[in-house]
Design goal:
Number of helices: 19
Strand content: 5-15%
Distance between the termini: 20 Å
Shape: globular
Helix content: 25-40%
Number of strands: 17
């Protein structure tokens, strides 16, 4: 592996994740001891093991919440395309003729460069901590979980990856090494991921050692996901190539059906033995910022507004680099360009929706945009199903007095009608209206090309009018601060919210998918019954997010009745998109099931200019080699091997 694999960079310790202690008598925050490298002796004490584990939770923030890695998980899918201000990092991932993915511009490098140092640290804990009788197996199990966690991400993203980092397979390396050999996909699963997760399920506690810490239920989820993904890999329904080239056979002689059954059984065991985890009562509550770290969330990359040290980044201005949580900026369009008028005759334009550190708003970068298909088809039912309302910002409300100074008391908006602070300035409609929207040429009065409907004071855009420059924002990833003091707060900082990684709800999806693939099911836990647990919850409302008002309504019966009698993989994928839209799942879901071409080879969206509301159909060229990302150029550059060895190290099809 890379030079200085022995050195676990100090940046992984400084600003480590804030993790509140759940054990009685413990301090509120894990103590940190910044170190430039780890030695075997360091991991032969409980203090050393806990220090290494703290760094593992911290390393999550260099992957999750990093916008460039986030882009690789979303752009180019049926959920997301590039936005107007996208650069090469985003354009190439769309596979729509705006560039070619290569080893330099694929930002999956964020995963590669951050996972392997963490894997080496985990091996150091496992190898050395196990030899000390006073160190609890539960602590070692946390390291096993994270080693498997990283290898699982890597093998899904790149195919086979190295198990030997310089000292032997799964051994702690303390020497610089500039050679590397990739293992095959079955070897990574059967030698690393499965054994580590099986041990983690056995040894991890039911209740987390620290809030947000690894648990038995979390390990069950990841083992079930790994079994499910490996089963698909063995089956290979569309004959997608793998690399390094190897037969699609299991070293232990088991077939895909065996692993589908294991996935089902593990996921159901997680549902039946949830520990402290449970589904939230409504979908709105899952992603509501004030309810962060709730009992549905099993793992997250954490942040805080109380300390730049523990947050890992500035609390006033984010640089657009990890460990800041800035993924949410990417699908935020520049709503601050909206203009209302200060005078009843429509004169005196001013910015009526200011940049604010609030969940519906945040910092706009316009690098990614939702497809029209996602808004119109994936979320077709916006009446019974609460998930569209709990995913997007579709109503932009006036907040101009929070900017301070001499501000108008009333804004004059669409049709020159008055709007007070807090009322809608611009609305993305749920459906195409019966009356045609009067769209302007160019920016128009709203300055962003929004249209007018008779009698409405808010500017409007319909689902088919969504463009690369103006579109519903991603509410679920929006920022939240408690220190705004009635003003706009610090909207230019990275989000101080946790980036959610694992949810209890996914156990239902994993079990349902395995059932669709032929797993024998338990009574009351067929694919349809499992999915209906999720859909029933989606039908329950307690708050109309974009209406900004209480809404106590139970549409669960209608949601369950609308579920098809027979569930197939496409329906599972549609439900996964409704549940996890924009959370970094989609590329992995489409690659696992080999449905990427079928579901995402075309999409619709309008263009780059204000006033453009004419959708066009865009065609993507998704080739078989795209089902793996390229090995990063940085890895190849650090290998001191002949050019032909580097060429064979790279995944085929990439420069």
């Amino acid at each position: 592996m890379k030079t200085k694999m022995k050195s676990f960079k100090i940046k992984f310790l400084i600003g480590a994740a804030v993790i509140s202690m759940s054990a009685a008598g413990c301090s509120d925050i894990l103590e940190e001891e910044p170190r430039s490298l780890y030695t075997p002796e360091y991991f032969q004490s409980e203090r050393g093991v806990q220090g290494g584990l703290t760094s593992m939770y911290a390393h999550l923030r260099y992957i999750y919440g990093d916008a460039y890695y986030y882009n690789t998980t979303q752009t180019g899918t049926d959920e997301v395309t590039y936005g107007r201000d996208a650069d090469e990092n985003f354009l190439v991932m769309d596979l729509s003729g705006r560039g070619v993915i290569n080893s330099n511009n694929s930002r999956a490098d964020r995963l590669w460069t951050n996972a392997f140092p963490n894997i080496n640290t985990a091996s150091g804990i496992i190898e050395n901590g196990t030899a000390v009788s006073t160190i609890s197996p539960a602590l070692i199990a946390e390291a096993r979980f994270f080693r498997a966690f990283d290898y699982f991400l890597l093998v899904q993203t790149f195919g086979g990856v190295p198990l030997d980092l310089g000292a032997g397979e799964l051994k702690f390396n303390t020497n610089p090494i500039r050679t590397s050999v990739r293992n095959t996909v079955p070897e990574v699963y059967t030698k690393a991921i499965f054994p580590d997760l099986l041990q983690a399920v056995n040894d991890l506690p039911t209740n987390p050692r620290v809030i947000g810490g690894a648990t038995k239920t979390l390990a069950r989820l990841y083992l079930a996901k790994a079994y499910l993904t490996y089963a698909w890999w063995l089956e290979n329904p569309n004959n997608i190539p793998t690399y390094p080239a190897t037969p699609r056979t299991d070293p232990n002689g088991r077939n895909a059906q065996y692993y589908y059954q294991q996935a089902y059984d593990l996921a159901v065991a997680g549902i039946e033995n949830p520990g402290p985890f449970r589904l939230q009562a409504t979908y709105y509550d899952v992603n509501l910022a004030q309810n962060d770290r709730n009992s549905e969330l099993m793992l997250y990359a954490d942040h805080t507004e109380t300390s730049e040290l523990y947050n890992g980044g500035s609390l006033t201005f984010g640089t657009g680099n990890s460990p800041d949580n800035f993924a949410g900026w990417m699908m935020t369009w520049n709503y601050t360009n909206i203009r209302s008028a200060a005078n009843p005759n429509g004169t005196g334009p001013f910015s009526s929706v200011q940049r604010e550190a609030a969940q519906p708003l945040g910092r706009p970068w316009t690098r990614m945009a939702p497809t029209i298909g996602a808004v119109e088809n994936t979320f077709a039912d916006k009446t019974n199903d609460s998930r569209y309302d709990g995913t997007f910002t579709t109503v932009y409300r006036g907040n101009w007095p929070k900017a301070g100074g001499n501000q108008p008391a009333v804004a004059y908006n669409a049709n020159n009608l008055p709007v007070s602070p807090g009322q809608p300035i611009l609305t993305f409609l749920n459906e195409e209206p019966a009356t045609a929207i009067n769209y302007p040429t160019g920016g128009g009065k709203s300055n962003v090309g929004a249209g007018e409907l008779p009698g409405r004071a808010d500017y409007v855009i319909s689902p088919r009018g969504i463009s690369r420059i103006v579109y519903p924002g991603l509410w679920k990833l929006g920022p939240y601060r408690t220190d705004n003091a009635g003003g706009l707060g610090q909207p230019n900082a990275g989000s101080t919210r946790p980036f959610n990684i694992a949810k209890f709800s996914e156990l239902y999806f994993v079990a349902a998918e395995a059932a669709v693939k032929g797993a024998t099911t338990k009574a009351g836990m067929t694919a349809r019954e499992l999915i209906n647990v999720i859909r029933a919850r989606a039908g329950k409302w307690r708050y109309d997010n974009n209406g900004n008002m209480a809404k106590v309504q139970d549409n669960s019966a209608a949601m369950v009745a609308a579920t098809p009698a027979t569930i197939d993989i496409n329906y599972i994928l549609a439900e996964r998109s409704r549940e996890y839209y924009g959370e970094g799942y989609r590329w992995y879901d489409l690659v696992r099931t080999q449905k990427w071409n079928e579901l995402a080879s075309t999409y619709r969206i309008a263009g780059n200019n204000y006033g453009d509301h004419t959708p066009v159909t865009v065609t993507r060229t998704i080739q078989p080699h795209h089902y793996l990302r390229p090995i990063p150029q940085g890895q190849l550059d650090r290998m001191d091997v002949p050019a032909e060895v580097k060429a064979t190290y790279q995944n085929p099809g990439y420069l």
